[in-house]
Design brief:
Blueprint lengths: L2 H35 L5 H18 L3 H7 L4 H4 L4 H24 L6 H15 L14 H32 L17 H37 L1 H4 L7 H15 L9 H21 L10 H24 L6 H15 L7 H15 L4 H10 L7 H20 L6 H17 L6 H32 L1
Length: about 475
């Protein structure tokens, strides 16, 4: 690699770690606000406890959400023939996300790091429309963007609604009035309440690490694939002949399909599957690991696997595939195994992001903690309200992570606290000014980051 490329690679990796660091202290309040404002844990102990569990969450979270981030931009956009164009994309994406996160943190607004990142990525894709010979509608993976956008839209509504339900459940099951009262300043609650809030704080921290930490992993993989596609397009530990067998099985099963009932779009995908299958089998014949493939050919093999697996999944989802349920289950298993070649992250990437998120969690938490703890409701959180909001947030994030969907920890918990306040005294129990500011930040995050990242991308691309 040229010296300039190495320098840019290091800068991009540092910025990715910075984003995750900022994400850590931006989102820490989501986990620790309840234990701090209910005197269940000292602030220093709470943020260290949250930081450790965030670290563990990233380490154990897998990479499904990370790959969701990588796949938001089509491969043709991710890997440009001019590597400096890829660098311009990464720099614009990271800088816009960091700028918005720091801005909302400075004003103490619990905005979504997930929305920030998604908006920045989509802004890059849309900027391609303004380039000579642009790639048009293929500049954004709209199918993936719609799925991600839907999850981010539903999360605050779910957090608000389920928190109200959770409060009613608490009132039915727990008759001790102390859990519904405001904490007495400087006085610790009974041990059983503290243990409950320690648990909910820990769950939010852990699942935050699993979901938000993976976004950082996805960012780093995006950087590595964009700048060094030959080295990071494929997992060198995966046996190519094993994947070759998966691809061959997919091809055999797809040949059983009745193509006369497929739509025009599905028929196009069907033909692409066989074209890429033929190319993959030819290129990997007699070769065991990706190290046996020339650097220039590795990204094409990645493209083959993604086109084969994604195309097959889309045809399955279309409901026109004339296979039995047993055959479809077998086909999905082959798809999952084939993806192992391209859906991965080196251990050092996961460790680097874990450390960045864990350290960030221990710093800068006070501004947003104050908003969550004091300014959402007209009264301080009760123990039950804090526990309800965090239980809802941890469940929502856990489910989203299991399905490989990026979701907003901030939206889940902030809306959960709003719901817990409404459950007690209705909408009049919310501070209108704070809620208005939070909602405004939520609404502006996507358009602002899209414009910012797109503008920076066009600027950097003209310079580099």
């Amino acid at each position: 690699m040229a010296t300039s490329l190495i320098i840019f690679l290091v800068i991009c990796l540092v910025l990715a770690c910075t984003f995750e660091f900022v994400n850590g202290f931006h989102d820490t309040a989501n986990a620790v606000a309840t234990v701090i404002y209910t005197n269940s844990m000292k602030p220093t102990v709470a943020v260290v406890y949250s930081g450790i569990l965030n670290f563990i969450g990233v380490m154990t979270g897998g990479i499904a959400v990370a790959m969701g981030i990588v796949n938001l931009l089509p491969m043709e956009v991710l890997v440009d023939s001019n590597v400096y164009h890829g660098i311009a994309m990464i720099l614009a994406l990271l800088l816009s996300a960091i700028i918005w996160n720091l801005g909302t943190w400075w004003f103490g607004l619990p905005a979504s790091s997930s929305h920030t990142l998604i908006g920045s990525i989509i802004g890059i894709g849309l900027a391609f429309y303004f380039l000579p010979g642009n790639v048009g509608g293929s500049a954004v993976n709209w199918d993936k963007a719609k799925d991600t956008g839907l999850a981010l839209l539903i999360s605050p509504l779910a957090g608000f609604t389920v928190a109200i339900i959770m409060m009613f459940i608490f009132k039915r099951l727990v008759k001790n009035d102390i859990i519904y009262k405001e904490p007495i300043p400087g006085k610790m609650p009974p041990i059983w309440i503290r243990m409950l809030l320690w648990t909910t704080c820990g769950l939010v921290s852990f699942f935050h690490g699993q979901n938000d930490g993976q976004k950082g992993v996805g960012l780093v993989m995006m950087i590595l694939i964009a700048i060094m596609p030959g080295y990071f397009s494929l997992d060198n530990s995966v046996n190519l002949q094993s994947v070759n067998a998966n691809v061959s099985h997919i091809e055999v099963m797809m040949r059983k399909a009745d193509t006369t009932i497929l739509s025009g779009k599905e028929l196009k995908l069907y033909k692409e599957i066989f074209n890429h299958s033929t190319h993959f089998n030819s290129e990997t014949s007699g070769k065991m690991l990706s190290a046996d493939i020339t650097l220039g050919s590795r990204f094409e093999l990645r493209k083959d696997v993604i086109k084969i697996t994604k195309g097959t999944e889309k045809i399955i989802d279309g409901g026109n595939l004339s296979l039995s349920m047993k055959e479809i289950r077998t086909l999905k298993g082959e798809i999952k195994d084939a993806k192992k070649l391209v859906e991965y992250a080196p251990s050092w990437v996961i460790i680097m992001i874990s450390i960045s998120l864990g350290l960030g969690t221990m710093i800068g938490w006070k501004r947003i903690v104050k908003t969550i703890g004091e300014k959402i409701g007209k009264q301080h959180m009760s123990y039950a309200q804090g526990a309800s909001a965090e239980l809802v947030a941890s469940m929502g994030i856990g489910v989203a992570t299991a399905y490989g969907v990026p979701v907003s920890t901030t939206h889940m918990l902030s809306s959960g606290i709003m719901g817990s306040m409404v459950a007690k005294k209705g909408l009049k129990n919310l501070q209108r000014k704070t809620i208005t500011n939070i909602l405004l930040a939520w609404v502006l995050t996507l358009p602002v980051t899209m414009i910012l990242s797109g503008g920076l991308f066009l600027l950097f691309r003209a310079i580099l």
